[in-house]
Amino acid sequence: MKLDLRDMILVSLFAALMVVGAYIKIPTPFGVYITFQLFFAIYAGLLLKPVAAFMSQIIYILLGLIGLPVFSSGGGIAYIFNPTFGYIIGFAVTAWIIAFLMSRVKDISILRVLKICVIGYLTTYLIGNIYFYLIMNLVVGKNISIFNVFSMMVMYMLKDFVLLILASYTSTLIIPVLRKNEFARG
Fold first, then answer.
1. Structure confidence by residue, pLDDT tens digits, 103-126
2. Dist. CA 53–CA 120, nearest whole Å
3. For 84, which DSSP code?
């Protein structure tokens, strides 16, 4: 698939938003920071074509792996051994899945968009939690059950679910306007 100039600009914009999303850390009384990485990965899927959404996340990942401190805890090739790197991989898959499913939706409704976003959200946490489990057990050498990983992530999953609802709702307001003005697929 060939990307036009608009797609390339949006790919770059969403790669940059991922960096910003990693550094916005709002503390909560529950000890879980609100960050916006999954929010922006979901939005990339909602607003971009599948290849563009995926590329925006791949560029973000590559920037981090070459050593730029774009991830929430830094960067560099060794980051692949960080237990949370699986969530970053999940962002790319999530953005593509959401964009792919959204490209087939003609009539935008909160329920349709919410269902699609939930699929992406679950994809990120499935990939991320399994990766976390594998790195902790095989690399770090700390025995932890997959159940414990999912239990540890409940607070993060709840906060991301709230952001998913926000992304779903706001996109139902934005996408029809973009489509009407031929700025989005549909």
1. 999 899 999 999 999 999 999 999
2. 12
3. T
Ordered domains of the chain (ranges, CATH)? 5-180 (1.10.1760.20)
Residues in contact with 135: Cβ distance below 8 Å, sequence separation at least 6, in sequence order = 81, 82, 83, 85, 86
pTM of the model: 0.92
Query: What confidence score (pLDDT) does residue 168 get?
Result: 97
111 Cβ contact list (under 8 Å, min separation 6): none
Query: CB atoms < 10 A from the CB of 166, how many?
Result: 13
Helices 5-23 and 50-65 cross at an angle (nearest 10°) of 50
- For residue 181, the 8-state DSSP code is T
Q: Which residues of the chain have pLDDT under 70?
A: 1, 30-32, 183-186
**Quick one: pLDDT at residue 31?**
60
Note the pLDDT of residue 63. 98
- Phi and psi of 185, rounded to 5°? -70, 165
Please give the helix or strand (H or E) that residue 17 lies within, else none.
Answer: helix 5-23
Of 18, 9, 89, 87, nearest to 48 (Cα)? 9
DSSP per residue over 103-117, as a string? TT--S--HHHHHHHH
- Going through the chain in order, the beta strands assigned E by DSSP cover none
Amino acid at 57: Q
Question: 86: how many CB neighbours lie within 10 A of its CB?
Answer: 21
